[in-house]
């Protein structure tokens, strides 16, 4: 069976790591099962993220095999980036002719590849399209990711979901329940597999920081692409830093905008904020595990903090991951900066939420996915 997996942006690599490892385990044991077969895993990196810290470092930290193919699309407008991926992935699919094409998450690489695979016929079949982390909905179509999620799910043949709300979202959109599998969360597979190794990271020494501290990450266009929004957020973060030391690994989009809007000085003046370039997976996990709280607009970090029972203040009006609010440690406070400080104070007083670990976030989701893929390609 030939499985071709696509990954393009930082959060994709964390999910791909679980799939690659599950394929590996399968290939070491498949001979014991006469109904099973070896999986030939082809990894395609679209090149959406290309900086060492946003890409290569993740492959190294997570021990993901080097991509077989790199499409090197780089940055551009949504249309340019999506179109470039589509043009280049078409050639790859025609040449490789995989039985299955697997996409993860909700980035431009995800939707671009799914769209091409849905209409390709080499010469008279197309690959089974598999979406890992399907069915999540913020119900906010101003988010590029929401468009990517809706379209990818509409054309996928098998949809693997992380939480039960996603099943309802998909069936409400008319997707057959037979295509949907509740398998758990591949990001948590990766976290569980690497947490011990992350303890060896020297990042705290390097940044000269020790607990207690909080972490800030910001990269959503709605928060960082507009001067006023970003300025208000930076002001609130400065206020928080008077109560708690903060580490702020800055995404390239955010860094470019902070320079453009003249906000760097404000950050540098806040002496309790440590600015760094984006961190690798192991360094970030090392910091995350010992943090007092996280202030973020990331999707994946809402899940990781829920798993680790670390309070997470999400600077968005909505979340496509409602389980992290319902039973997890996530506070959805919107982008309104005046709610940040009171929530931080509540948490620092020890009155923060405690999380329960969501169902099937148990570290074996990748194996469940591979077993289902084997079964589905047999029938
Ligand atoms: C993308 C995803 C988003 C995901 C995020 C994680 C889409 C629509 N968005 O957003 O869902 O949460 O990745 O980081 O797919 N840049 C670099 N180096 C890089 C990559 C990007 O400098 O390695 C800069 C470029 O100037 C680029 C900008 O960052 O224009 C934004 O990158 P892009 O891939 O377009 O979107 P992200 O904001 O990273």
Kindly summarize this structure in a few lines.
By secondary structure, the protein is α/β, with parallel strands linked by helices.
Give the helices and strands, then pairings.
Blueprint: E1 2-7, H1 10-29, E2 40-45, H2 56-61, E3 69-70, H3 78-96, E4 100-104, H4 108-119, E5 128-132, H5 144-154, E6 158-161, H6 165-172, E7 180-182, H7 186-198, H8 203-207, E8 214-217, H9 221-224, H10 227-241, E9 246-249, H11 252-260, H12 264-269, E10 273-276, H13 281-289, E11 293-296, H14 300-308, E12 312-314, H15 323-326, E13 330-332, H16 340-348, H17 365-378
Parallel strand pairs: 1-2, 1-4, 2-3, 4-5, 5-6, 6-7, 8-9, 8-11, 9-10, 11-12, 12-13
The structure holds uridine-diphosphate-N-acetylglucosamine (UD1).
Question: What do you see in this structure?
Answer:
The relative contact order is 0.13. This protein has 17 helices and 13 strands. It has helices spanning 10-29, 56-61, 78-96, 108-119, 144-154, 165-172, 186-198, 203-207, 221-224, 227-241, 252-260, 264-269, 281-289, 300-308, 323-326, 340-348, 365-378, and strands spanning 2-7, 40-45, 69-70, 100-104, 128-132, 158-161, 180-182, 214-217, 246-249, 273-276, 293-296, 312-314, 330-332. The strands form two sheets. A seven-stranded parallel sheet has the order 3-2-1-4-5-6-7, sandwiched between helices. The protein has a six-stranded parallel sheet with strand order 10-9-8-11-12-13, with helices on both faces. With 379 residues, the protein is α/β, with parallel strands linked by helices. Helix 5 (144-154) links the parallel strand 5 and strand 6. The chain is 46% helix and 14% strand. Bound molecules: uridine-diphosphate-N-acetylglucosamine. Uridine-diphosphate-N-acetylglucosamine binds at residues 9-11, 48-51, 54, 75, 106-108, 144-145, 219, 251-253, 256.
């Amino acid at each position: 069976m030939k499985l071709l997996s696509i990954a393009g942006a930082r959060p994709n690599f964390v999910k791909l790591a679980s799939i690659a490892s599950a394929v590996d385990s399968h290939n070491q044991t498949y001979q014991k099962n006469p109904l099973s077969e070896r999986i030939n895993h082809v990894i395609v990196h679209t090149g959406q993220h290309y900086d060492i810290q946003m890409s290569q470092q993740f492959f190294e930290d997570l021990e993901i095999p080097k991509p077989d193919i790199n499409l090197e699309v780089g940055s551009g407008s949504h249309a340019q980036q999506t179109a470039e991926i589509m043009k280049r992935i078409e050639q790859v699919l025609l040449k490789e002719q995989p039985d299955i094409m697997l996409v993860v998450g909700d980035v431009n690489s995800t939707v671009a590849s799914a769209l091409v695979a849905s209409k390709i016929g080499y010469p008279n079949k197309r690959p089974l399209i598999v979406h890992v982390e399907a069915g999540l909905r913020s119900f906010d179509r101003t988010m590029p990711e929401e468009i990517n999620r809706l379209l990818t799910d509409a054309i996928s043949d098998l949809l693997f979901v992380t939480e039960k709300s996603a099943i309802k979202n998909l069936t409400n959109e008319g997707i057959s329940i037979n295509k949907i599998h509740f398998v758990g969360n591949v990001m948590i597979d990766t976290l569980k597999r690497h947490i011990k190794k992350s303890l060896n990271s020297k990042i705290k020494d390097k940044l000269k920081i020790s607990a207690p501290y909080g972490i800030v990450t910001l990269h959503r266009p709605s928060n960082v692409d507009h001067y006023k929004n970003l300025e208000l957020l930076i002001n609130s973060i400065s206020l928080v830093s008077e109560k708690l030391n903060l580490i702020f690994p800055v995404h390239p989009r955010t860094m470019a905008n902070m320079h453009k809007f003249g906000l760097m000085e404000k950050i540098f003046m806040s002496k309790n904020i440590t600015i760094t370039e984006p961190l690798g997976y192991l360094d970030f996990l090392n910091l995350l595990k010992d943090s007092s709280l996280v202030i973020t607009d990331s999707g994946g970090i809402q899940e990781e903090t829920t798993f680790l029972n670390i309070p997470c203040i999400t600077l968005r009006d909505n979340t496509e991951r409602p389980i992290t609010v319902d039973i997890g440690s996530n506070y959805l406070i919107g982008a309104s900066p005046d709610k940040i400080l009171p929530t931080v104070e509540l948490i620092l007083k020890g009155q923060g939420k405690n999380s329960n670990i969501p169902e099937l976030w148990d570290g074996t989701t990748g194996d469940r996915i591979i077993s289902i893929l084997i079964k589905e390609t047999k029938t």
